[in-house]
Structures are given as structure tokens and as C-alpha cells.
Amino acid sequence: MVGALGRWATQRIRDYSYAMGFLFQVGRETAFFMRRKQVAFRVLVLQILFTGFEALGIVSLIALSIGAVIIVEGGSVLPRFGQTSLMYSILIVVITRELGPILTAFVIIARSGTAIATELGNMVVSHEIEAYLSVGINPVSYLVVPRVLGVTISMIALTIYFNAFGLIGSFLVSQLVKPVPFSEYFRALLRTLQLRDILSTLLKSVVFGIIVSVTATFQGFRVRNSVTEIPRAAIRAVGQGFVLCFLADAIITLIYYL
Question: Exposure pattern of 149-178 as b/e (b: 16+ CB <10 Å)?
């Protein structure tokens, strides 16, 4: 039993050391990204196209649904307590501060996280990573960094889009439940919206983007020699992405209220 515990502890230390070294490499190569050749920028653009632009449809549907649910539920419950004005505070808190960043992160984890881990895992199994190393190309610079930057930029853009579309969509739904003048609705929202709400959602989007992209690339590179490891790497990327995003969200929200 002691030997098993020792082997488990040794393996955990190796895993954490490898993860810290990988994170350090990503940070260092990101600082020098602008000096890289055109191929890295092409990967960056393609990653933004896949992660950001192609996810607009599902993000729009989720944002509209969340806004509609808040309007319908709030419009039926809050008037009973004479707190109709709280509707705008709830919209800001739920959409802008909380659900906007976290739901966008979930969409990107499900789409891009699995795709990145699977793609890099296939490259490891087919020995493409070894080919990069044999010609003196750092795979972190040309494969990881563009994807990390692309996912993070897309996360920020999609979070802003989610917030805007959710608030606009909630206005459209409110016209079906209880018509409110356009100027009155958005004037009340702007009165409720504070600078720290905007900073909170931007901070969460940046942190979530880094978490999702680094986790996916890390798990993709951890594939060894077997094709059967690739789906497991994708599953680990999704699971760890969800857990880390929840933890980061809780920490940032705690800091917000301190």
C-alpha cells in the first residue's frame, strides 16, 4: 500500500510539473507571437472563424432563451411583491455578470475544446509533432499559441455578443408580455448597469478563454501512441474545462462581492 501511494504521489507530481512547464511555455511563446511567420496568423484566423463566427447561431438561441425566461418569470412573480423595477437588476446580474460568460464558455468547451484536443491528439499519433521538432519548429509556438489566442479572443467577442443579444432579445419578448417603450427599457438598463459589471464579465471571458484553450491543447498533447487515447483526451478536456471554469467563476464572483 505504501508503494502504491508513493507511485501515485510521484505520478501526480510529474503531472503537475508537466502542466506547469506547459503553461510556462505557452505564456513565453505568446509574448513572442507577433514575431512568428504568417502560418501562425493563419491558424489564429481559422481558430477565430471556427470558435467565434460559427458559434453565433447557438449563442444567439441560448441568449434569446435566457432573456425570454427572465422576462416571463420576472413579469409574473415580481409584480406580486411590488418589485417590478428589480427586473432590470436581475437582467444585468443574470445575463451580463453570470450566465453570459459561463454559458458562452460551455458552448466553446463543447465545440472548440473537443475539436482542439482531438486535432492535436491525432497529430501526436500520426507523428506530425515529431516532424515539427525534426525541422526545428516549436509546436507550442505554431500549434498551441494561435489556438489559445483565437479561443480567448472569440470568448471575449461571444460573451459581449451574448450579453447584448440577451438584453435586446429580452426587450423583444417583453413586448409580447407587457409592452415597454424602447427608450424607457434601455434607460433603466443603463441606470442599473455599472462599470464593475462590465469589468467582471470581461475578466471572466478572458479567464475562461485561457482555461478552455490551455486545457484542450494540454490534453491533446498528452496523447501518446494509441488512437484510443484521443476520445479520452477530448473527454478530459471537457471535464476539466467545466470544473476549472466553475471554480474560476466562483472565485471571481467572490472577489466581486468582497
Answer: bbbbbbbbbbbbbbbebbbebbbebbeeee
